[in-house]
Amino acid sequence: MSNRSESERIVITGVGLTSPNGNGLAEFRNALLTGKSGVSPYEIRYFGKTFAGICNCNVLKWRGKREVRRGTRAGSLAVYCSGEAMEDAGLDINALDKDRVGVYIGVTEHGNVETENEIYEIKQYDYDCKYWSHHHNPRTVANNPAGEVTLQFGITGPHYTLGAACAAGNAALIQGVQQLRLGEVDLALAGGVSESIHTFGIFAAFNAQNALARHEDPTKASRPFDADRNGIVVSEGGCVYVLERLSDAKKRGAKIYGEILGYGMNSDATDFVLPNAERQAQCVRKALKSASLAPDEIDIVNTHATATVMGDALEIEALRDVFADSKKTYVNNTKSFIGHAMGAAGALELAGNLPAFQDGVVHPTINVDNLDPKCEIRNLALNTPIEVGSVRAILNNSFGMVGINAVVIVGKYDEA
Fold it and tell me: What is the set of active-site residues?
C-alpha cells in the first residue's frame, strides 16, 4: 500500500499496553469484542465518589520497588508498556545499540499527581517546606515519563515527552515515524500514558465544566453518541509501540502488526475547549493525503468522541464531511469501554483496532441505547461487533484541548 522504499516505510513490530479492561493486546481486544467495560466506582480525596477507568498491571515486572517509589505513576506505566512492547517484539534491549533507540511518550499533563501528593504530605508538618520531597523536581519535569524509560533500560538515544493534550498518543507515534525516517534512530518506542485518575483536580475541573459523566451504573457511564451522554469518564492507561523501518524488521524476521501509512496534525486556533469541526476535517484530509488514500479506502475510523454533547456531534460533523461518499468505511469508538485515557487515548484506541487486520471484525461502540441524531453517520458500529471480512486501513482520530488535532492511518502489511 506504499510507494516508499523499505527504508522509509515504518512498521509496528511490538505492542505493550495496560488498559482499564485488560493488559496486553489479546486481553484488551477480547474485552472490546465481548462488551467488557473497564469503568468502575472510584473515590479520590477531596472530590469524593465518582467513576474511573483503573489499570491493574504489575509495574514491578520491569522495575524495582525503589524505582517505583522514587519515580512517578506515569513513569511506571511508561516503563511497563515499553518493556512489554520490546518483549512482544522479540527484542533483547541489552543486545541493541542503545544510542540508536529513541523514546517518545505522549502525555496530556504531567506532574499534577506528584505535586498534589507532596502538598498533601507536608500538610502534616504545617506546610513547612523543609519537609518537601527532594524527588519533586525530577518527578515533575516535563520529560519525566520518557526519561524514566531510558533510565530503566539504559537507553542512551533521544527521549521526548510530548505534551499534546488528548492527541498526545498519536503525536508521539508521528514523532517516532519522523525520527526513523530522518535517520536519527533505528528503533523507536512511541506511544502515550496517563496517570490522570490520581489527581483530584482533573475530576473537579471536569465537574465544574459540567462535563463529568454521571450514571447509576458505572459500566454505562461512558456513552459516546448516546442522546443521554453527559460527560467524560477519566481513565488511566498506557500503550507503547515498537516502530522500525521495514527493511530492519524484515532483516530480523519480526512479526508486523501494521504499517504507518500517513498522518496529519494541525491546530484549531479557535477555542480553549470547544473543538472545531472544520479543522478536524482538514486534519483527516491531511492524513489521507499523506497516506495517498481516498476516503473510501479507509475501512475503520476510530473516533475520538469523549461523550460530551458538543464534542461528539462536532467530530461526527467533520467525519460526515470527509466520508460522505464512502459506503465501506465503518466508524467505532473505544472510550465507551474504557473511558478517556487522556494522553494514552490515541495509542490505546489504535491498538484495540489493530487486530481487525487479522480477524476482519470492527469492534463496536457500546452503551448507545438512544443514538443522538446529531451523531448519526453511515456504518456506525453500535453495541455488537461487525464482521466485515477484510480490513486494509484504519484511521485513528485524536483531538485535544487548546485545539490540537492528530490523525494516524495504519495499513495492513502484506509481504507480497
Answer: 166, 304, 340
